[in-house]
Amino acid sequence: MQKLPIILLLVICGTLIATPVFAVEAGGEVGFSYAGTWLKNGNYQDELTDYLNLELYLPPLGETELSYAFRVGAPLQGLTDDEGTSYFTKKLYLKHRFAPFHLTVGRQPVSWSFGSLLNPVDYTLGAEAFDEETSSKYTDAVEVYIPLNWNSSLALVTSFPAGFALEAGKMKWGIRGRFGVKGYDLTFNYVQEAEGAAAGAGGDGLIGLIPIPRQRVGFTFKGDLGDLGVYGSFGHYFGEGKEQGHSHLVGVDYSYNIDYYSKLTMQLEYLG
After folding, report:
1. Contact 213/236 with Cβ under 8 angstroms?
2. Is the pLDDT of residue 1 over 70?
């Protein structure tokens, strides 16, 4: 059955102002969207989507902080209809700042984005795309972040895509070095997927949908060339029993301030 184009799209998003609750502050975002479609036979179908993103801002205890954030899907529909309400924990971690490094343990966002629309060398492929994040960006992990100087750092991550297990084959890990060189932001990273994820079973993000080699190394750069922003990446994918492959991405972006409140941004990139 053919459908006519969507004739109505209503999106309402509101920001919840951080409100003190005793020693805790809460903030977030609530969103509603409504879409309607006229079918060729004259019937009308509509869909309502609502969600709530909420984060609790807890006061730090010395050099230790606790972060908790979650997403509730269809909260209003769950109250008024038979639509099931979903819950997803985005953040639930402890972070302690030691003198030489920072240690983060628990559910946390792990993304090695560098301003591109797509990132073929991210820690989890598909964690972010076209300025939108997916649930695979948030993973149960242990991260050690080592600042080297004001624009250089080293990050070591171990995550548990199949649930907490200390078996080496069930863990995923990666390392990323970031360096500022003559106005350019350069990164080098290495990722080894868990055994099941590399074969396309039980992985997160795009892993689990597209079988790729278990290991990959990546390089990214970002900087300015005159009024243009330029960036790119190169990835090499390899592993036992899998065909090796490469990826390369180049992109440019340009921003123009129309007035104090408005800005026009254009972005073009090629992924091969």
Report:
1. no
2. no
* pLDDT on residue 197: 66
Q: Quick one: the chain helix, strand, coil %, rounded to 5?
A: 5, 60, 35
Reduced to 3 states, what is the DSSP secondary structure of residue 81? coil
**What are the tokens at 238?**
């390899």
Range in 98-107, 152-161, 233-242 with the lowest mean pLDDT: 233-242
The pLDDT, as a whole number, for residue 211 is 66
**Separation CA 107–CA 91 (nearest Å):** 5
Which distant-in-sequence residues (6+ apart) come within 8 Å of 192 by Cβ? 172, 173, 174, 214, 215
Q: Running DSSP on this structure, what letter comes out for residue 89? A: E
pLDDT band at 32, cuts 50/70/90? confident
CA dihedral 146, 148, 150, 151 (to 10 degrees): -90
8 Å CB contact between 202 and 163: no
The CA angle 71-73-75, to the nearest 5 degrees, is 110
Q: How far apart (Å, rounded) are the C-alpha atoms in residues 244 and 207?
A: 16
- Let me know: does 234 contact 248? Beta carbons within 8 Å: yes
Report the alpha-carbon distance of residue 205 to residue 136 in Å, rounded.
5
For the stretch 108-160, pLDDT in tens is 999 999 999 999 999 999 888 887 888 899 999 999 999 999 999 999 999 99
Report how far residue 223's alpha carbon sits from residue 229's, in angstroms, rounded to the nearest whole number. 6
Apex 156 CA angle, 152 and 160, nearest 5? 150
Q: Which residue from 85, 139, 129 is spatially nearest to 109, judged by alpha carbons?
A: 139
CA-based angle 14:17:23, to the nearest 5? 145
